[in-house]
Amino acid sequence: MRSAVFLSALGLALGCIAPFAKSTEPSQPEIQLAMPAGGTYHGPVINGLARGRFSNGDLYEGEWKNGKPDGIGTMTYMLGGSYEGEWKNGKRDGKGVMRFAGSERRAEVRFVDGHRVDVTEEHPSAATAAARFWLRSGEEPTGSHIRNKVVYASLPLDLGYDELTPDQQRLVRSSYPALDAGDAPPYPLKGGKELYRLLVALVRHLEIMDDILVYVAVDAEANVTSVTTISSIDTRYKDLISLGTGLLKYKPAQCGGQPCAGVVPFNLKLRTLY
């Protein structure tokens, strides 16, 4: 409750801030929450060997060909866990060893064209992946198209993980590249509605426009242990976003039916509509 009250106060205060504001009549904001993706590689490639990070923070070390992982390499994921093994044309392809997120358990795995074939993979339906849930400026979530909608995502913005449908839960799990079968990732306890209010205030009154990745590490007792923000925006604004995500309440990850540590991603696309 205290964190929700603080986030609300912070969001409202931003509406009254004069020093950083660019306009007394701010434009309509739009915020998209998406699933994280690999993005662009940054780092050296010497004699066919690479060691660097992708723009989502994943670390790759290994053989490289035609601008992609190809051969034997190890990817350590920002969302937890790692894969060490065979790659082809930028995808996991062949035999390898997976260190699973949260549990740190290791297992031999096999992939074909990026898809794991030693177990039955679960995939969300196309309809669930394509769904859009909106939060309008009046802060009431809806699945319909209404005026003044400012935040949208493929998942309900005010529901916790246990309140999602089984297919929506599969969509959440599908964004974790090293999650063991049957495990569940950490998740905002009530969907993070108060955080989105803060983000709307940032976009509306400071006209921040950028793609921002935020990774919130949560321990087995649901305590936030660290917040990592990947963005080119001003440090003071990154600090505000980090503070907002860090103050949310979370449910811990589940590994083998027991609480465990994990990472919650916020992939944010902040825009101003003139």
Automatic annotation (TrEMBL):
Swiss-Prot/TrEMBL keywords: Repeat, Signal
Entries under InterPro entries matching the protein: MORN
Superkingdom of source: Bacteria
Keyword field contains Repeat: yes
UniProt key word RNA-binding: no
Signal peptide boundaries: 1-23
SUPFAM superfamilies: Histone H3 K4-specific methyltransferase SET7/9 N-terminal domain
UniProt-listed PROSITE patterns: PROKAR_LIPOPROTEIN (PS51257)
Name used for this protein in its record: MORN repeat-containing protein
Organism the protein comes from: Massilia aerilata
